[in-house]
Amino acid sequence: MLGRLWSRMSAGGADAGRLPVRAGGGLLALRAGGSAPAAWRSEERIDVPLLLVAAALVLLGVVMVYSASITLADSPRYKVTPTHFLARHLFAIAVAMVAAVAAFSVPMSRWQRLAPVAFIVAFALLVVVLVPGVGTGALGARRWIPLGVFNLQPSELMKVACVLYAASFTVRKQDYMHSLKRGFLPIGLVMLAVGILLQLQPDLGAFIVIVAIAMGILFLGGLNVRLFVAITVLLAVGLAAIVWLFPYRRERIFAYLDPWAAEHVLNKGYQLTHSLIAFGRGEWFGVGLGGSVEKLHYLTEAHTDFILAVIAEELGLVAVLAVIFLFYWLTKRAFEIGRQAVALERTFAGLVAQGIGIWLGVQSFINIGVASGLLPTKGLTLPLVSYGGSAMLATVAALGLLLRVDFENRVLMRGGRA
What we know:
By secondary structure, this protein is mainly alpha-helical.
């Protein structure tokens, strides 16, 4: 599977790698009005460091999902074998790699045309998941559509669709980015509709990430600064209202402020306190792989939302800092690819790349902040690391899009046509 992925991405899925040979190729040929060399090395066609960083996070996730979930076989809630979650996680990675290859194979010009369709499909799935008898739930939330061996979470697909649609909208409305009525209101109403559907599940975490993606792309696309600030303030007020109007969310905030209080430590502050205990036990270098105590039915959702706590306990603060650095590098690289695309007058592709960077940066920051006690408890997976088939599918597919943007940048910089 990895070999086919590498060869497919190296080929680029297009004729870009078959450019005519000309002396002094590369950027020199481009400046002289010539063409790029006929055969590039694989590392010249794709961003190998980006692939390696993403692979490192995925492989770390495989190891830690197995370590964090192996004890769940003893839980009456699951009734599974010790390797159940590992097998499903590996299956999700395989499906995600196929999706990444498919995303990489489609030119960005075609993705720009397909953006509204992708958004409509994702929006329809958000409606379908709420239909009684179709969507399934867990822990009080209805977020999944069962597909046999795979449970699809539409909110994860909406993140990809939002990146594409917001970038497409910004390009189409470039001349109206200073206008509230014509520049922001249309996409604002669309995001409001998405927010209502997500709150019916409910899934506040996904809504926060999706709004961050849309607002970030609009801002990078030229949205009026005063308008952006005003809308951001209104969104903050609206978020505070959503939290305050729902007692269970309000209790989470109070528990976050003092998780060790007697009324919180066994209630809303339970996950946070045990996550902090895991961080404390790990110290610098951890207690050793597989040696976590908190995963023994103390820390709930240890293989999903709180997998970083298990990493901290078993591998220590050094491993946590390494994970933070990898996400920082991945986010930074996405923005660099986006800026390069914009410089090559490929605004849609550039905004897609930067939107993916916003997505990875915001979601990883929230997950790390929650696990370490920096932010109130909120259920969001750690991208590429946590257990979760739909999250893995959406994130790896988004990385396929990011690699496609970078590939087309390289083609253009060598005098070819993307």
